[in-house]
Specification:
This protein has 10 helices and 4 strands; from the N terminus they run E-H-E-H-E-E-H-H-H-H-H-H-H-H. The chain is an alpha+beta fold. The protein has 2 domains: 2-73, Glutaredoxin (3-Layer(aba) Sandwich), CATH 3.40.30; 84-205, Glutathione S-transferase Yfyf (Class Pi), Chain A, domain 2. The chain starts with a strand and ends in a 10-residue tail after the last helix. The structure holds glutathione (GSH). Glutathione (GSH) is lined by residues 6, 9, 11, 46-49, 61-63, 125.
């Protein structure tokens, strides 16, 4: 199977997590961010992740891919219960996380941004939706302080390093990709429980963090 993705894409990380956790072999293919043709041909729109199965058929939508691989790999199926506190936490982080990660992800040598035209494509597209990247960088401290405070709120919700609700579950699939992206941000005060959690899920899913190239 082949998985088409971008390294900075949290939805792609959801898909990567189930392959890593269930030890299902897959070829990861990182598209350039301005490559519209490949995804358009596969699923009729410019969006990743895309799974191309062994029979050649293509599947979009991260959670569909997660469920497909979860069933295919056998073993215990992911518990899909998500606590309202986790849903609420994600909703709050969603209000500012992109302001921190979008302007940084283009500068940390990710494969989808290997060319200037891929970077320009991304900056133009995302600026139209989220606002000026430079302004967000200038406002970083405000967002970092919000995140620091939210990490303190998150800490007591972590029941185990193996999975936030005790075992690996849908909560991890939804939460870890956001936290992993935020490891590219310099100056975040990670609490010990959150740090242990992301390091452990990174190991379990074989998805490296960005903490060695923070900006
Ligand atoms: N609902 C989709 C969302 C996927 C998504 O938004 N992917 C983004 C990358 S993070 C994308 O491909 N956007 C098109 C673009 O950036 O041009 C899923 O869960 O798979």
């Amino acid at each position: 199977m082949k998985l088409y993705l971008y390294d900075h894409c949290p939805y792609c990380v959801r898909a990567r997590m189930i392959f890593g956790k269930k030890i299902v072999p897959v070829e990861n293919i990182y598209l350039l961010n301005d490559d519209e043709d490949t995804p358009n041909k596969l699923i009729g729109k410019k969006m990743v992740p895309i799974l191309v199965k062994d029979d050649g058929s293509a599947m979009g939508e991260s959670l569909d891919i997660v469920h497909y691989i979860d069933q295919l790999a056998g073993g215990t199926l992911l518990n899909s219960t998500v606590r309202p506190e986790i849903e609420g936490w994600i909703k709050i982080a969603d209000t500012y996380r992109n302001f921190l990660t979008l302007p940084r992800c283009i500068s940390i040598n990710l494969p989808e941004f290997a060319t200037q035209s891929a970077i320009d494509y991304f900056v133009n597209k995302k600026t139209a939706i989220y606002g000026d990247f430079q302004q967000h960088l200038l406002n970083s401290q405000t967002y970092i302080e919000r995140l620091n405070s939210d990490l303190i709120t998150l800490s007591p919700l972590i029941l185990s390093d193996r999975g936030i609700n005790g075992t690996f579950s849908m909560e991890d699939i939804l939460l870890f990709p956001l936290l992993r992206n935020l490891t590219m941000v310099k100056g975040v005060e990670w609490t010990a429980p959150v740090l242990d959690y992301i390091n452990s899920i990174s190991r379990i899913t074989q998805i490296p963090l960005f903490n060695e190239r923070t900006i």
